[in-house]
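Build the 3D complex.
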Amino acid sequence: MYQNNEIPKEKAFDQSIQLIKEGYSFIANRRQELNSNIFESRLLGQKAYCLAGSEAARLFYDESKFKRAGVAPLPIEKTLFGEGGVQGLDDEAHKHRKALFMSLWTEDALSELRQLTQHHYAKASEKWQESKSIILYDEVKIVLTRVICEWTGVPLEEDEVEDRAEQLSEMYEKAGYVGLGHFKGWVARSRAEDWISELVEAIRNSELQVDEQRPIYKFCWHRDENGELLDVETVAVEILNLLRPTVANAVWITFAGLAVHDYPQEVEEVRNGGSQKLLYFCQEIRRFYPFFPFTVAQVRHHFEWNGCIFEEGTLTLLDLYGTNHHPDEWEDPEVFNPARFEKTEITPFNFIPQGGGGYESGHRCAGEWMTLTIVEESVDLLINQLDYKIPDQDLSYDLSDIPALPRSKVKMTDIRLR
Ligand code: HEM
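Done.
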């Protein structure tokens, strides 16, 4: 596969426009053409390596070979991540900050998250019963904004819920856009950072009292590896690293609505199969449907791997969606089949919807358990607690849109609580 000790190269100029056009399929299209899980391309005016599959993922998550500081393209930093957050740290600074996130997921905290999700869905469902129709994606964003603000200890007035839900979602909805769309994402981040920064200052000045067990309190008083308090903006960025991606779960929950509509046999399995079948269904949603196309790092130092030379400083993309759909990793990857999780051996490198590798030291998503908890509760609601109709609508989605979503965002009518 890797002949002449060279990484196969695309014979083309800068591919940034193609990346925007091809979206989730960009790396897979070239991987197939070049018959290689590693190839060289040109993106954003520079050389870039593209990696796919579990073997390449294992390499990508070797921290002695790749680093993250200063890697995220500016437009992504300005919308999705924010500046100074855990995503762009390396080594000791990263481990220390990541430990703060990982300390949040106690059994009690996750169980409270589950209860809050159930509670806010129950309240919303009562309202949905009185509406002629709802758009699942829009409603779930609002429910999850309520859930995550309560869970983190961020005060939220009733009259600001919709506005905050919009701000939080624009940060991930617009991250892949260019032009005006991207500008909206930028504005949303800036407004959200102002909102949270004010709260952080008020907590630090004792003008606002919050429960010491809440993440917002812990983040406000967290000290870095040198014993210093984080600056207010960085605390705001990290709190938004809890709020924004939780609301982003609305994307997969909307796809869950599509899956429930498209795969009635699998739904029957969940109805009759208890919590294990529910888990498999949710895992297959995370594998099958798109969300994060790829993640990025940079070669730390020159190194050689399987005869290929990796040059220091080169931008490197790991194909997350493509690895979850890779035919060498998954049998019939384009078939929605939750039962595959009964027999497929899952490793930190073959199933990587939220990144791979380790949680504590690597950059794997800090919110995977939260996501599973929320997606499980959502699928349970859709399958076991609600009756509803899905009228004629455009449920198709386009793999060139990042993030992709069913076009109608899943319209539901005649909603009844069972
Ligand atoms: C829709 C659900 C989610 C998806 C698709 C997702 C996806 C991802 C991906 C792809 C990464 C980067 C992995 C890498 O670069 O190696 C990541 C990192 C991260 N995610 Fe998530 N995520 C989700 C939900 C969450 C939630 C609910 C939280 C927290 C409440 C969260 C917090 C984080 C944090 C803090 C990082 C940075 C970790 C680090 O750099 O060490 N995510 N996520």
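The pocket of protoporphyrin IX containing FE is lined by residues 86-87, 98, 101, 241-242, 245-246, 248-249, 252, 291-292, 295, 320, 353-355, 363-367, 370-371 (CB under 6 Å).
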